[in-house]
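Good morning,

Attaching, inline, the backbone tokens for the sequence recovery test we're adding to the shared suite. The designed sequence is right after.
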């Protein structure tokens, strides 16, 4: 119980004091994701220098889980390479599929830092999408940013909207 209480404090702190909030320039990709189940929304911008994530900026509204998750994600991925950030996203997905198994949370604690606090969320299927929304947005923005790399013909920040029905959050890119 003491660990769950600490995790709740971490989530509440990220919700009340969000890290990285506010849309900033420059950026190579911008995506907008909406969770149709509950109405959570996030617009995420990704700035990549070389293969390193230089900044993640965002604006969003929604429940404490969705907003705290993006704050924890920001802390975890800024300064990492895109492949490292995507690997962190895979670890977070594993955590969300663990159904609250403390052994999984313990195993992923070093890789996920504060994001491991969302382990308890995985016990509540309706809240998993809330926690995953920002991670799905990061994955989409990373693909767009990489396609904007030198030699690519498209600039993702100016691409038109398209639906991504395969994303669990019902994301839409801009």
């Amino acid at each position: 119980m003491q660990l769950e209480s600490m995790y709740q404090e971490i989530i509440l702190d990220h919700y009340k004091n969000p890290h990285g909030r506010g849309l900033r320039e420059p950026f190579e990709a911008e995506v907008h994701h909406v969770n149709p189940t509950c109405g959570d929304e996030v617009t995420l911008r990704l700035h990549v220098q070389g293969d390193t994530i230089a900044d993640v900026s965002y604006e969003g509204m929604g429940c404490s889980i969705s907003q705290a998750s993006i704050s924890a994600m920001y802390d975890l991925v800024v300064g990492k390479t895109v492949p490292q950030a995507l690997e962190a996203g895979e670890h977070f997905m594993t955590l969300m599929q663990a159904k609250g198994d403390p052994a999984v949370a313990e195993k992923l604690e070093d890789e996920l830092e504060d994001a491991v606090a969302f382990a308890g969320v995985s016990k509540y299927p309706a809240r998993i999408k809330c926690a995953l929304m920002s991670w799905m947005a990061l994955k989409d923005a990373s693909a767009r940013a990489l396609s904007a790399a030198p030699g690519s013909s498209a600039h993702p920040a100016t691409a038109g909207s398209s639906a991504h029905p395969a994303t669990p959050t019902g994301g839409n890119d801009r």
